[in-house]
Amino acid sequence: MPTKVLCVFGAVILLLCNPLKSKAQRFLSDYDSTLFMRDTVTQTVRRFENLHFSAYMQPQFQVAQKEGTQTFEGGNFGEHVNNRFMLRRARVKIDYVLPSKDNDFPKALFTFQFEATERDLNIRDMFLRLYEPKKQNLSLTMGLFARPFGYEVNLSSAYRESPERGRMSQTLMP
């Protein structure tokens, strides 16, 4: 009985190690993957290379000393609640740059940015900026964008002295 098992096992090993080529292997080896990259992937990437996505999310956990605490920003706590998880902000930004023929300076920029929380969805930016093509020192911006009021309101949290805006900026420009 053990000799039959060894013979079958040896025959299986010989079949697996046999260097015969099958048609499936030949078909796969005839197809060159560089042609696939050049003909399909490269053209698709070129079509979308001027489209840029960026996003971030800022979750928050709050704990209050007593249940039903009233807060300035973020809404009041529930009647029998003293802690909560919140989505403070989550933003997605999409930019599309229309390049000029020489690709040194863009012809136009379209930006769309929205912010989502558990309470609502707001559009932060949606504008089109057209650039003057000859001397490249003038641009025209149209749409919904940051309001030019004061110094603190326009700056992103990455560039401000503190990550949060001051109470007066939050009151005047909610």
Walk me through the structure:
This protein is of the alpha+beta class and 174 residues long. It is built from four helices and five strands. It has a five-stranded antiparallel sheet with strand order 1-2-3-4-5, with no helix packed on it. The model has no long low-confidence stretch (mean pLDDT 76).
Chain-wise SSE layout:
Blueprint: H1 2-17, H2 23-30, H3 33-48, E1 51-63, E2 83-99, E3 106-116, E4 121-131, E5 139-144, H4 167-172
Antiparallel strand pairs: 1-2, 2-3, 3-4, 4-5
Features:
174 residues, alpha+beta, five-stranded antiparallel sheet, 5 strands, 26% helix, flat
Radius of gyration: 30 Å
Number of helices: 4
How much helix, percentage-wise, in residues?
25-40%
What's the total number of strands? 5
Q: How much of the polypeptide forms β-strand, as a percent range?
A: 25-35%
Distance between the first and last residues' Cα: 85 Å
Largest sheet: 5 strands, antiparallel
The coarse overall form would be flat
Uncertain runs: none
Structural class: alpha+beta
Give the overall pLDDT as a whole number: 76
Strands ordered across the widest β-sheet: 1-2-3-4-5
SSE sequence, one letter per element: HHHEEEEEH
